[in-house]
Amino acid sequence: MNRKLFIVLVVMCAWMTACTTTESAKPAKANPPPKAAVAQPKTAAKAKPGIFRMPVLSHPDSWSLVVIPDVQAYTERPRNHGIVDIMNAWILDFMEPLKIQQVLFTGDLVFRNDQRNLTPDRNSLLGKEQWKAFSRLMERLDGRIPYILCTGNHDYGNNSAENRNSWFDYYFPTDRNPQTRKHLVACNYNAFGMTTLENAAYEFTAPAPDNRKFLVISLQFAPTDADLKWAAKLAALPRFKNHFGIVLTHSYLAWTGERLQQERYRLSKEGGNAGEAIFQKLVFPAKNIRMVICGHIARADIWERGVSFSMAENASGKKVAQMAFNTQAIGGGFHGSGGDGWLRLLEFMPDRKTIKATTFSPLFAISPSTRHLAWKHDERSEFTFTLD
Hints:
The protein has 388 residues and is an alpha/beta fold. It has helices spanning 3-24, 35-38, 41-47, 72-75, 81-93, 127-138, 168-171, 178-181, 225-235, 266-269, 275-283, 362-365; strands at residues 63-68, 100-105, 147-149, 184-189, 195-205, 213-219, 244-249, 289-294, 307-313, 319-325, 343-348, 354-360, 375-376, 383-386. It contains twelve helices and 14 strands. The protein is globular.
C-alpha cells in the first residue's frame, strides 16, 4: 500500500469514528424512552417525598373532638362494617396523642330503624339487625372513650321518621358506656315518657391548660318545642353559665351554610322543629351555646353537598359556629362504601378561642398505596375559625 492511500484511509476512519461518537452523544430525543416510562407512579412519588402525615396537634397544649358523620350506609351492609371498625380503632390509637375528649356522632345510626324488606344490592340487614350490628361495632369504644350519639330521621319509624318508635334506647341505654355515663348530667323524657339519651346533656372539662367547662346537648331528630324548652332551661342554669355550649343534632344546616327552614318528614309536620326554629328557640337566646354540629345533608358523590360551615350571632352578640359534616354518600353514592372512612377533627387551640377543623380518613391512611387520599384540603374540609 502506497503512502498516499494509507493516509486517505486513516483520515476516512477518523472521520467515521467522529461521526459515530457525535451521534451517540446527541440528546436522548434521538432515542426516546417509551412514553409509559415517563409517567411512572414511582417517579411521581419521588417528586413529593414525605407528603403524608398522620394527624398531630398543632400545639402541645391543644386538645380535640372527633365528629363522625352519618353511619347509616356503613351499618346497612355487613361488607361496610369493617370501615367503622377501622375508624373506631384509629380513634383509640390516637386518643392520647390528639387528646381526644369526646367523639360526636351526627345521627342516622342505621339505614332503616324497623325495615322489613330487603333490597338487592342496597341493604342486606333488616332494621333491628342494623341496630345490632352498629351496637356490636361500638363495643370497641365502650369503656375506653366517651362518645355522644344523636338520633336522625332514619333512626325512627319504619323507613324514615313516620313516628317516634326507635330501637335506639334498647341498644344504647343511659348506662351503656361508663365513659359516657360519667359525663351525663341530664336527660329529657322521650315521646313515650321514658328517660333516654335521645335528648341528653353532658359536661366535661378540657385538659390543662385550657380547663374550660363544656356542655354538650344532644337533641333527637326534629326536636319538639318541649325538647327545646328543656334544653334552653338547662343551658340557662347558673351551673352552666360560663360553660362552652355545643348543640349536637342531626338536621340543622343546608349545604349552603344556611339553616334549614323546614323538613318534609311526618315528624317535622307534627311538631318537629327544623334548623331555623332550633336556632330561634334555643341557640339564639342562649348566652353560652357557641357551636352547633349536625349531619343529614348529602348528595351522591358530591363532596360539597354534604359539608358546610357558617357563623351566626346570638342575642348576646357572641359568635356561634354552625357546622354540617356528612360523607355518607361519598364512595359510591348512598349505597356505596358508606363514606370512605372520613371523620372531622376539631382542634381547640391553647388561646381558648381558635379552633382548627381538618378532615381525615383512617381507611385511606392504613395503606401506603392510598395514603395520598387520606386528607381533604379544600376550603370546606380544612379551615380555622375563632370564637372569642
